[in-house]
Amino acid sequence: MAKIFTITEGLENLGALKSGGQGSVYKARKTGEIITAIKILPTPIASESDDDKHFISFQNEVQKLKKVNEIPNPNVVSIIASGITSSGNLPYIEMEYIEGPDLGDLLKPPYDPVFTVKETIKVADQLANALAHCHRANIKHGDIKSNNVKFNQHTGNYILLDFGLSVMSDEQRRTSIRYAGAIEFMAPEQSSGETLTETDVYSFGIVLFELLTGNVPFPLMNKSEMARNTVMVAHMETLPPDVISLRRQALPGYWSNEKQQREMEIPVWLLSMIYKCLEKDPAKRFKNGGELQEFIHLGTIGDERKKGINLSLGEKATIQADESALKKEILTLQTRLAEKEELLKDLQYLVDTRDKELIEAQYYSATKRRGVSKSLFFLVLIAALGLAGFAAYDTFYKPGKPIPTDTVAQTDNKLPETTDSITAVTDKPIKKVREKLKKNSNTRTLATSQMPVKKLAPVPDSTSGGDKVYTGDKFTILNTAYFYDAPDKFRRTAIYLTPGDATLTLSGETDEFRYAVFTDDKGRAIKGWLLKKDFKPASDY
Predict the structure, then answer these.
(1) What CATH number has the domain bearing residue 164?
(2) What are the C-alpha distances in Å from 166 to residues 22, 92, 282, 394, 539?
(3) For residue 509, is it within any domain?
(4) What is the spatial distance between Cα 332 and Cα 104, in angstroms, rounded to a whole number?
């Protein structure tokens, strides 16, 4: 039986519960029948004054612990009091006594060697809740391990215990961790004495790894200094083993095949969370318990929705309402798209109509100017011939030279302003769509009121090359046939023939082009190169 002695006035020591590098835990009884747990730290305090740096550090950390308990948390042990022992001047923390096994005990007989997936997720959720609560109060536990998480037999909750490291000074913490800490659960940065919120996250990942596989990723083979160094280096340099293969080996043989198969179905989010916790670089882990807790909640909710179970009526109604609203929005967008497509077709028709009217205006304007210049030419010619008759009568009977009749407008002439041109359309949406169509189209070159009329190439000599000449034959225009001022697809003009019958005179020829003269029913002619694919003899069609 353990020796009974008084820790301090009002606290009776009922025996040691466990001992470690961070101190010893005793079961104690306050005056009366209240049972508590006492954590006694190994570093003595010389005096309870501001001159003792250890006492000041201890007091500061105790104040932080009290903040943790300002708002009770079902997964964090309650801190009752703190002080200095009557003998030895050792600092102590008085906590509530949790009756039940710790996680390490639950992995030993008579319990199963591994936790079920469901129970592992429960531990993860409750331990993350405890860490989130501590980290919000700026408390870094620094000693998360399976022996410091107990199962409360009365409440069914898992409780985070033993805040011994959190109340030590940095120097004390470095020494304690290096020589006496649970090296199997230590984060890489703890080898240099650094403790972060991400440090607790790393140890959290080790605990879950142990629950699923029955062992830690880097087990300590013995208590020698060499064995401790080997584990410490593994934490810093070696990737953790595969959880799934280790779990398959550790499943108890007395479980049924059905249960074994079911227990190998580990959620992907749970595995990814564990491996992220075990990243060597603290910056790549979850930042704190709050991020862990949020990730776990998202993972469990996702699992429930995939299975279609455990959803309340309210949650199901919310999901159905969201789906209905989404379908309505999709239908509305589809209707708007159809309306926009119809508007685009109307605007395309309007643009084509305006283009045709502009081309016709260009053609008739050019023909009119040509007629005026020809009349003036004949008037001057007749006057000149009359004067010449007095000097050489015999020349009056000589045949005159053919008069050139260029039917195409001169290059420098400009089109007159038309009130019916495309630029007269003031509707802004139509204008924007037309500009977009003009940019995107690679098959139409529009002539505007400010563009000069292109001069077509002259008729090639029909006697050269032995080309057969068709004079005034009927042809069928298959497509919109544009005139080109050279047998080159990049030399297209704005003048074209619409599909239908037309009278053409053909001469020069290349692989893709024929030189053509088009004469309308009023005797007006247009010359230029046409693509062969755009027309055929009427007799062949």
Answers:
(1) 1.10.510.10
(2) 10, 12, 19, 132, 103
(3) yes
(4) 59
Q: Does the N-terminal peptide bond of residue 110 adopt cis geometry, omega within 30 degrees of 0?
A: yes
Alpha-carbon distances of 506 from 30, 68, 493, rounded to whole Å: 121, 100, 18
Quote the CA–CA distance of 16 and 393 in Å, as a whole number.
151
**DSSP secondary structure string for all residues of 257-309:** HHHHHHHT---HHHHHHHHHHT-SSGGGS-SSHHHHHHHHHHHHHHHHHHHT-
CB contact at 8 A, 38 and 48: no
Closest CA to 146 of 8, 16, 18: 18
Do 406 and 289 belong to one domain? no
135 vs 455: which has the higher pLDDT: 135
| Same structural domain, 471 and 516 | yes
Query: Quick one: which H or E segment has residue 61?
Result: helix 53-68
107 and 235, same domain (yes or no): yes
Are 369 and 298 within one domain? no
Name which of 38, 6, 14, 9 is nearest 164 in CA terms: 38
Sheet holding 6-8, edge to edge: 6-8, 11-20, 23-30, 35-40, 91-96, 79-84
**Strand-pair category, 525-531 with 470-477:** unpaired
Token readout for 410 is 């001169």
Paired residues of 79 in beta bridges: 95
Calculated CA dihedral for residues 215, 219, 221, 227, nearest 10 degrees: -170
**β-pairing verdict for 500-509 and 513-519:** antiparallel
Q: Which two tokens stand for residue 434?
A: 């037309």
3-state SS assignment for residue 421: coil
What pLDDT shows up at residue 277? 98
Please, which residues bridge with residue 35 across strands?
A: 29
User: Which runs of consecutive H residues, i.e. helices, occur in 414-509?
Assistant: 428-440
C-alpha span between 25 and 40 (Å, rounded)? 6
| Across 171-197, average pLDDT | 76
At 488, list the tokens: 């080159």
Average pLDDT over residues 481-510: 89
Angle CA(528)–CA(529)–CA(534) in degrees, nearest 5? 120
In a domain, 317, yes or no: no
> Residue 379: CB partners within 8 Å, gap ≥ 6?
none
Q: How far is 517 from 509, CA to CA, in rounded Å?
A: 13
Number of residues that make up the chain: 541
Please name the helix (run of DSSP H) or strand (run of DSSP E) that holds residue 499, with its range, or none: none
What is the band of 55 on the pLDDT scale with cuts at 50, 70, 90?
confident
Integer Cα distance of 126 and 103 in angstroms = 13
